[in-house]
Every structure is written in structure tokens, then in C-alpha cells.
């Protein structure tokens, strides 16, 4: 009976080790995907930075102009992804 219990504990420990390893692999994969998405967005938003910088410098030169009715770049990262990839599924991925 004791040997059976030891074998059962051993199998449970092996399952636990497998699950822990699997969770770590998943965490690393998600971390890599986050990095890739950040790089992708940085590349996609780089042209927008140039546009906003040039419009900011032109606004500084034209101080008499009234402020625009809505900001040129006031979206959050989620809204940008939503505009880029759609609300439900990312077409790029």
C-alpha cells in the first residue's frame, strides 16, 4: 500500500512539474508576442510621430490659428490596434 501511495505521489509530482514547465513556456511565448506587438506598433506609429511633430511645429508658427476641434493623436494603444486590425480579430496576426 505504501509503495502504491509513493508511486501515486511521484506521478502527481511529475504532472505538476509538467504543468509548471508548460506555464513557463506559455509565459515566455506571451512575453515574446508582447515584444513583437510593441515593435510592430512602434514601426506603424513612427510615421504618425513625424506628422504630429510637423503639425506641432506648424502650430507654433501659426499661433493665431484656433485649436483644432479634435486632437490629431489622442488614441490609446487599444484604439490604435482596433483601428488597425478590427474590433474582433487581428488581420495581421
Automatic annotation (TrEMBL):
This is BMERB domain-containing protein. GO terms for cellular component: microtubule cytoskeleton. Residues 1-39 form the BMERB domain. GO terms for biological process: negative regulation of microtubule depolymerization. Pfam families: bMERB_dom. Residues 50-75 are annotated as: Disordered. InterPro entries: BMERB (IPR040127), bMERB_dom (IPR022735).
Amino acid at each position: 500500500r505504501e509503495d502504491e501511495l509513493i508511486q501515486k505521489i511521484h506521478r502527481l509530482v511529475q504532472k505538476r512539474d509538467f504543468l509548471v514547465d508548460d506555464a513557463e513556456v506559455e509565459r515566455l511565448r506571451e512575453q515574446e508576442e508582447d515584444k513583437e506587438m510593441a515593435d510592430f506598433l512602434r514601426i506603424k506609429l513612427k510615421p504618425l510621430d513625424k506628422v504630429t511633430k510637423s503639425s506641432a511645429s506648424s502650430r507654433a508658427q501659426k499661433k493665431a490659428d484656433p485649436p483644432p476641434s479634435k486632437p490629431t493623436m489622442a488614441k490609446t494603444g487599444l484604439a490604435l490596434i482596433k483601428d488597425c486590425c478590427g474590433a474582433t480579430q487581428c488581420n495581421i496576426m
